[in-house]
């Protein structure tokens, strides 16, 4: 399995992976009125904004089978997402289902990104893997590659938010050096957990 930095040509593959893993790791195709809308929130904007970064896992066949994407500057990204990206994207879509309405409301709730500890952990990320890429250390390799990128960009720490019921993801982040920040405003008992970790070797001077 090859791990490399994401490139513009990966956009369609990233969007597809986001969709087919969008229901807690299972296929969310058909769950929303527009099959691309999940990626419009959780994937493709990171390929558009200057603070975005990402790495992908590529099978021997050449197919992209997993990704880790995110932003090095959550505050700047969140402002751009709400003021620029989402108005442009949502202007071409209309909520058709209850799931759409919930997603559209959540998209402009910056609290989902602006965690309490964002000064220490200014970056945030998302990881999604197709079933054939799970296990075998692919997720860990994506995290390690992303940490190299973050260190190179001088980012001191990174965070993410995971559903509390996604026990597999919770265990994965615990194994890969992330710590649960249960006191964070975005950690909601029974619903979500903020995980974070320092970037090894990054400059943390004020």
From TrEMBL:
Keyword Transferase in record: yes
Keyword Hydrolase: no
Domain of life: Bacteria
Domain N-acetyltransferase: 1-200
A family per Pfam: Acetyltransf_1
Coiled coil: none
Alphabetic keyword roster: Transferase
A GO MF term: acyltransferase activity, transferring groups other than amino-acyl groups
Gene3D superfamilies according to UniProt: 3.40.630.30
Xref: InterPro entries: Acyl_CoA_acyltransferase, Glycosyl_Hydrolase_84, GNAT_dom
PANTHER family assigned to the protein according to its UniProt record, in alphabetical order: O-GLCNACASE, PROTEIN O-GLCNACASE
Name of the protein described by the UniProt record: GNAT family N-acetyltransferase
Species per Swiss-Prot/TrEMBL record: Labedella endophytica
């Amino acid at each position: 399995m090859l791990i490399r930095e994401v490139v513009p040509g990966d956009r369609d593959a990233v969007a597809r992976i986001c969709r087919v893993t969008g229901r807690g790791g299972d296929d969310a195709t058909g769950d929303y009125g527009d099959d691309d809308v999940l990626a419009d929130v959780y994937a493709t904007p990171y390929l558009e904004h200057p603070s975005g970064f990402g790495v992908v896992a590529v099978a021997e066949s050449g197919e992209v089978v997993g990704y880790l994407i995110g932003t090095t500057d959550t505050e700047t990204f969140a402002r751009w997402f709400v003021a620029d990206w989402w108005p442009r994207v949502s202007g071409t879509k209309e909520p058709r289902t209850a799931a759409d309405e919930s997603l559209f409301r959540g998209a402009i709730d910056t609290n989902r990104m602006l965690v309490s500890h964002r000064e220490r952990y200014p970056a945030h990320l998302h990881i999604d893997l197709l079933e054939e890429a799970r296990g075998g250390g692919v997720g860990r390799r994506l995290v390690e590659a992303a940490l190299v990128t973050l260190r190179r960009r001088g980012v001191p720490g990174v965070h993410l938010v995971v559903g509390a019921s996604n026990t597999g993801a919770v265990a994965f982040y615990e194994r890969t050096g992330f710590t649960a920040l249960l006191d964070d405003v975005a950690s909601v008992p029974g619903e979500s957990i903020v995980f974070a970790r320092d970037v090894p070797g990054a400059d943390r001077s004020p």
